[in-house]
Structure formats: structure tokens, C-alpha cells
Design brief:
Elements: H1 8-18, H2 25-42, H3 48-63, H4 70-80, H5 88-118, E1 126-129, H6 134-145, E2 151-155, H7 162-172, E3 176-180, H8 185-191, E4 196-199, E5 203-204, E6 210-213, H9 216-226, E7 230-233, E8 275-278, E9 285-288, E10 291-293, H10 298-306
Parallel strand pairs: 1-2, 1-4, 2-3, 4-7, 7-9
Antiparallel strand pairs: 5-6, 6-8, 9-10
Length: 314
């Protein structure tokens, strides 16, 4: 069989996802769908099986870039699962249509989540958010558009400081936003009378637990202790069909040099986990484009959305 060679553009997308130049579960998912589409379009031979092999190998390469976020795998699933055709051109056109549909629906989902989530925000509320979630930012911006006089505290989110992106995005929209260090969350919640926390999700499991940026579970615990609502904003493609089969989410650990240079710390070990798991009991609701649900309803949503696809695999 001919050796698989990916085009330069596809390899660049792999690199950008792996090195976190493309980051955020939604952005990763859309970049994945686009990469699959462009990989199909790059094929200029007339062997349908060879095209399918190319796409399968491309999907495997994409999966290897990030280990935890189900959004990447579901983007592949929802782009390739519906693809079909008897000829190369028909199959390529089908992949393109499925990818475009996924990207369009993904962007629409963020907009809808913003509308639903803003209903949980009252005028003059002070809010807190963590990392850089398109969905949770959409909620905050929608509340601002509705002329609710809100204030927002954004964590810096070490070690990649995704909170910088959040703070800039909110400020550009005219939102009153303050950037804080991660360890200031408990103090700020009490001192600033924070009324609610909004975060995103990388993966939502069937038991209602949410895998998200490291530090999320600590913030959820603080919110629970402070008796304020903790909301997760997540598109349905971030729910994990694999979790119905009992598969555990593998928590990605990245290069420790993202924290510090180990050469400067002789005889010191480092760990750099990227995500943690927040139990369902610390989550007040999950805001999706299909509605606001209890975390304990995640099982039913996954069955409804992915039931016919659960057995599909690469």
C-alpha cells in the first residue's frame, strides 16, 4: 500500500493543536473538522479505499495531538460518520458537507448557550470564570448585551495563562473585567460577593462529572462551600459516548517546562496535569444548546445524541 503522506497544511494543523496555538475545546473541534475536510479535498487520485485510508490515518494523527478533550474525537466522529458516496468525488463532497455542518452547528451552539446561560444572570451580578471557554464567554457577553450591569473576575489560568485571552475578549466587548491569580479565587468570591461561576468543559461524562482545565474542581469546591451556583457551559459534542461504556478519561500531562526549567531545580520532580474532574454534586447545571440540564441528566443526553454512533470507531 502507498505510504501515507499528509499535505503541509494538515501537518501544520496537527502541530498547532499539539502545541496549543489552537486551544479551547470548541476551537480545537472546529479546526479538526476543517482539517479533515481539507485532507479529503487534497486527495487527487481515483481510489475510494485509498481516500478512506487517508482520512482514517489523518483522524488517528489528530487524535494523538490531545488526549483528553472529547470534542476533538466527536468532531471526527460527526464529520466522518455521516460521510458516504460511491465515487471519490461523491465521498469528498460528503465529507466537506459534514465538516461544514459541524462547524456551523458548533458556532450556533455557542450562540444558543449564551442566550440560555444569560437567563441565570441577574442585573448587577458579580461573576467568576476560569480559563478561556467560548461558551462561558458567550453567556457573559450576552448578559452584557442585555444591559445587565455585571462585573467579571477571570483567573489567569496557569501555566498557559488562557485567562489573559478571556480578559481581553471581555474587555473588548465593554465588560467590566478584572484579572486575578488562580490562588485568589476563594478570597475574591467572598470579598467581591461573587454570585455565580461560569466555566466551560473539555469532556462531560455520563455520570455528570466534568473534565475541564486544571483548577476547575477547586473552584467548584469553593463555590459549593460559598453556596453560590457553579455552571458548566458545554456544547453537546463535548459529551462523551465512551463514558457510557465505562471508559475512563485519560488526563493529559504536558511538558513540565511549561511550569519552569527543571535545570534550575536540582533533585525536584515536576508534574503538569492539564485537566481535572469536577464531580456532579458540585455542579448546579450544565448549559447546552439543547437546554439547561442537571449534570445527572448527562447519561440520557449522551444516549439521545450519540446512541446510534456509540459502537463506531476508527
Amino acid at each position: 500500500m502507498k505510504k501515507i503522506v499528509f499535505p503541509d497544511g494538515f501537518n501544520e494543523t496537527l502541530k498547532e493543536i499539539h502545541t496549543m496555538r489552537i486551544r479551547g475545546a470548541g476551537k480545537i473541534a472546529r479546526a479538526t473538522a476543517k482539517a479533515i475536510k481539507e485532507l479529503a479535498e487534497s486527495y487527487d487520485e481515483d481510489d475510494l479505499e485509498e481516500l478512506k485510508t487517508l482520512l482514517i490515518e489523518g483522524a488517528r494523527a489528530l487524535l494523538n495531538t490531545r488526549q483528553t478533550a472529547i470534542s476533538l474525537k466527536n468532531a471526527i466522529r460527526l464529520t466522518l460518520q455521516g460521510a458516504g458516496g460511491k465515487t471519490v468525488n461523491e465521498f469528498k463532497e460528503s465529507v466537506k458537507n459534514e465538516a461544514n455542518r459541524f462547524i456551523k452547528n458548533s458556532l450556533k451552539a455557542v450562540e444558543t448557550i449564551g442566550i440560555y446561560g444569560s437567563k441565570r444572570i441577574e442585573d448587577s451580578d458579580t461573576l467568576l470564570t476560569h480559563c478561556n471557554s467560548s461558551a462561558s464567554i458567550a453567556v457573559i457577553i450576552q448578559a452584557h448585551k442585555e444591559e445587565k450591569k455585571i462585573r467579571v473576575f477571570a483567573t489567569e489560568t496557569r501555566p498557559w495563562n488562557q485567562g489573559y485571552l478571556t480578559a481581553r475578549e471581555l474587555a473588548e466587548k465593554g465588560v467590566d473585567v478584572t484579572l486575578i491569580v488562580d490562588s485568589a479565587v476563594r478570597y475574591i468570591i467572598e470579598d467581591e460577593d461573587v454570585k455565580a461561576v461560569f466555566v466551560g468543559a473539555d469532556t462531560v461524562c455520563s455520570n455528570g462529572a466534568v473534565i475541564n482545565k486544571i483548577g476547575t474542581s477547586q473552584i467548584a469546591l469553593v463555590a459549593h462551600e460559598a453556596r453560590i451556583p457553579f455552571y458548566v457551559c458545554a456544547e453537546t459534542y463535548k459529551f462523551s459516548p465512551e463514558s457510557l461504556r465505562g471508559e475512563l478519561v485519560k488526563i493529559e500531562e504536558r511538558d513540565v517546562r511549561e511550569i519552569a526549567n527543571p535545570k534550575n531545580f536540582p533533585n525536584v520532580r515536576f508534574r503538569n496535569p492539564v485537566f481535572d474532574a469536577t464531580p456532579a454534586e458540585y455542579i448546579d447545571a450544565i448549559i447546552t444548546e439543547k437546554g439547561v440540564i442537571s449534570p445527572h441528566a448527562a447519561y440520557d443526553l449522551i444516549e439521545k445524541e450519540f446512541g446510534e454512533m456509540i459502537e463506531w470507531s476508527l
